[in-house]
Amino acid sequence: MNKPEDRTTLLEFPCEFPIKIMGARVDGFAQAVIAVVLEHAPDFDPARTEMRPSSKGNYLAITCTLNATSKAQLDGLYMALTAHPMVKVVL
C-alpha cells in the first residue's frame, strides 16, 4: 500500500479535472485543442468545453473539464498541449 509521502500528486483518481488552454483567437484553435484532449482522454465530452475571449478579442481561453484517470494521463496531456504550436499557455 502506498504511504502518503510516496504520492506524487494530491489528486485522487478518477476525478473531474479542468484544464485551461490559451492561444491566439484564430480559426481552428478550439478544434485543435479538443482533438489533443480527445487523444489523451477519449471519453472527454466536447460539450464540456468553455470558451472565453480576451478583453480585446485577440486571445481565446478554453477550459476543458475531463474525467482524469491518472497522473500519467494528465502529464501526457499537458506535454502535448504545451508542445502544440497554436497553444500559448496551459494551466
Q: Which H/E pattern describes the elements?
A: EHEEHE
For the biggest β-sheet, the strand order reads: 2-3-1-4
Q: What is the second-level CATH architecture?
A: 2-Layer Sandwich
Cα radius of gyration in angstroms:
14 Å
Question: What is the number of strand segments?
Answer: 4
What's the number of structural domains? 1
The tally of helices reads 2
Explain this structure to me?
27% of the residues lie in helices and 32% in strands. The protein is α+β, with helices and mostly antiparallel strands. It has one domain (12-90): Alpha-Beta Plaits (2-Layer Sandwich). A 4-stranded antiparallel β-sheet has the order 2-3-1-4, with helices on one face. Helix 1 packs antiparallel against helix 2.
Q: What are the defining features of this structure?
A:
91 residues; Alpha-Beta Plaits; alpha+beta; disordered N terminus; four-stranded antiparallel β-sheet; single chain
Topology of helices and strands:
Blueprint: E1 15-24, H1 29-40, E2 49-53, E3 59-68, H2 71-83, E4 87-90
Antiparallel strand pairs: 1-3, 1-4, 2-3
Helix pairs in contact: 1-2
